[in-house]
Design goal:
Elements lengths: L2 H4 L6 E4 L8 E3 L9 E4 L12 H6 L4 E4 L20 E4 L3 H12 L8 E6 L4 H14 L4 E5 L2 E4 L2 E3 L8 H13 L4 E5 L2 H5 L10 E4 L16 H13 L4 E4 L5 H4 L7 E5 L6 E11 L2 E10 L3 E5 L4 H16 L4 H8 L9 E5 L3 E6 L4 H11 L6 E6 L7 H14 L2 E4 L9 H12 L5 E4 L3 H10 L5 E6 L6 E4 L2 E4 L2 H11 L5
Parallel strand pairs: 2-3, 3-4, 4-5, 6-10, 6-11, 7-10, 11-12, 12-13, 13-14, 18-22, 19-20, 19-22, 20-21
Antiparallel strand pairs: 1-5, 7-8, 8-9, 14-15, 15-16, 17-18, 23-24
Length: 500
């Protein structure tokens, strides 16, 4: 590939060098840049790789791409002093350039796929699995990228972020296309959208589920709600068809600047796909939903997950599937055979108790989760949970209050403390808990907290463990310690000889 071919779809300013320059690869880490590669300078929070231009030029990179003015990078009229053979190009946004470069390097794989992006404060993972389930039932080969990792063609790969880095995203899309996948369903976090991890291609469909005040706002995430909302809307502005939940109070705000056709869904009157009714039912001993859809589609569908909010998640999937020609039979098949790791996942059950694991990690999702579990009609609902360190403190207050009001007994424990002491997180949770009359216990060690809940379970208890869900680690002081709520429950059940 030549440099000209690599940047053919990008907006660049050529400082020096020519389009015929051969390129052997991409480099985003100055320590790993090698001869013949194109090195992209990124001004990060801790390190600005514009400062490494001379070093990478000495290693023989074919080109350097900058996002600052040449003079500010120490460049002269002929480019890098001492390295006139190294091409230099300038872009306006380095993060966008990273995505565009990766897309080009991997041959623009999204051109070969139907891409469906999903964003929202809540419901991304569940909706993604619903979309994937319906399209698979309709005969498509589907790949997914999101909170539960990357899946396609019977393979699974773990991710550290809901939305991976742009070059990882493009590599996975290329692997999917090469494996015969024709539909890619991608969870787009607000951070991922802000950092252009989902850029470099236009989505065929972009779904906006919802947005919550107080969530993902802080020094390590979005500076304010306006920025959070703007980043959510970026998905719709880069989609050929926008699907928006009409129930959300910011539905119109998120459509600012959107030029694509818009389809709405929800309970709201006038929505293109409307939930006329939602009935809570039990099927095969587990709670689910029966929903009636009207508008562009007249259908009665079942979902094997509890919670009215999951009817909205299902309706979003139905709206997209119907728009792209999937049958109602495929919708019914996909929505009644859902198994989502770490989402309402019953991981252990015996004659005395059932134990559920879920990723709920803020007030909104904790409240919805506990309300949905009430549909089991347990004699006691016991909630074991922790809140994240270095995240919005509002999450902690709200989780404490939600558990205090909705659980019969709460056990407060550690989640991802990150760089905050557990005692600080605990005290914030207790501010919310003390607004209620809920009974609680504090056990800092997560394994011991789960042990206590299981060892002291009463007949008919439903124990739910919140905050980590599908994750395989627990983070504290920069260390990722291998850990799984599900594996912990299964190990403790064996140790305590609880049987089946």
């Amino acid at each position: 590939m030549t440099l000209g071919e690599l940047v053919s779809r990008m907006t660049v300013t050529w400082i020096c060098g020519g389009p015929d320059t051969p390129v052997t690869g991409l480099a985003f880490d100055s320590r790993k840049a090698a001869e013949g590669e194109v090195f992209l300078c990124i001004a990060g929070a801790r390190f600005d790789s514009h400062d490494a231009i001379a070093d990478v030029a000495a290693r023989g990179v074919a080109a350097v791409i900058i996002s600052k003015e040449p003079a500010a990078c120490g460049l002269g009229p002929e480019g890098i002093p001492g390295f006139p053979q190294t091409a230099v190009l300038q872009v306006a946004d380095a993060r966008l350039a990273e995505a565009e470069l990766a897309a080009a390097w991997y041959g623009h794989p999204a051109d070969r796929l139907k891409t469906i992006g999903i964003t929202g404060s809540k419901g991304k993972t569940t909706c993604a699995h619903m979309v994937a389930g319906i399209f698979e039932a309709a005969g498509h080969s589907v790949g997914t990228i999101g909170t539960n990792g990357v899946t396609y063609a019977g393979q699974w790969f773990e991710l550290t972020n809901t939305t991976p880095a742009a070059h990882e995203m493009q590599r996975y899309l290329r692997e999917m296309a090469d494996a015969g996948v024709d539909v890619a369903v991608i969870e787009c976090s607000s951070q991922g959208l802000m950092q252009h991890r989902c850029s470099g291609f236009t989505f065929d469909a972009g779904i906006f589920m919802n947005i919550s005040h107080g969530d993902h706002i802080g020094p390590n995430e979005h500076k304010d709600f306006a920025d959070y909302l703007y980043c959510k809307g970026r998905l719709l502005r880069h989609s050929r068809h926008a699907f928006v939940c009409a129930d959300d109070e910011h539905a119109q705000d998120v459509l600012a600047g959107v030029t694509a056709p818009v389809t709405t869904f929800g309970f709201a009157e006038g929505a293109d796909y409307r939930l006329a009714s939602v009935e809570k039912v039990f099927a095969q001993g587990a709670p689910g939903l029966h929903m009636a859809v009207e508008g562009r589609l007249q259908a009665e569908l079942d979902v094997n997950l509890p919670g009215t909010f999951n009817a909205v998640n299902a309706l979003a999937a139905v709206a997209v599937a119907d728009t792209f020609g999937c049958s109602t039979a495929a919708m019914e098949e996909g929505l009644t055979h859902l198994h989502i790791r770490g989402r309402f996942e019953i991981v252990f059950k015996n004659s005395r108790m059932a134990v559920c694991v879920d990723f709920a990690h803020n007030g909104y999702s904790t409240r919805n989760h506990l309300e949905a579990l009430r549909e089991y009609h347990p004699k006691r609902l016991v909630c074991v949970f922790g809140a994240d360190g270095n995240r919005s403190r509002d999450r902690r207050y709200e989780m404490g209050e939600a558990s205090g009001r909705l659980a019969d007994f709460s056990i407060i424990t550690a989640g991802h403390n990150r760089w905050e002491p557990f005692e600080v997180i605990r005290d914030d949770i207790l501010i919310g808990m003390h607004k209620t009359a809920g009974e609680y216990l504090v056990i800092p060690n997560r394994v011991e907290a789960i042990r206590y809940a299981m060892e002291n379970a009463q007949e008919g208890d439903l124990i739910t463990i919140l905050g980590l869900g599908h994750e395989f680690y627990q983070e504290e002081k920069g260390v990722m310690t291998p850990y799984s709520d599900k594996e912990t429950v299964l190990r403790l059940a064996e140790e305590l000889k609880l049987g089946e």
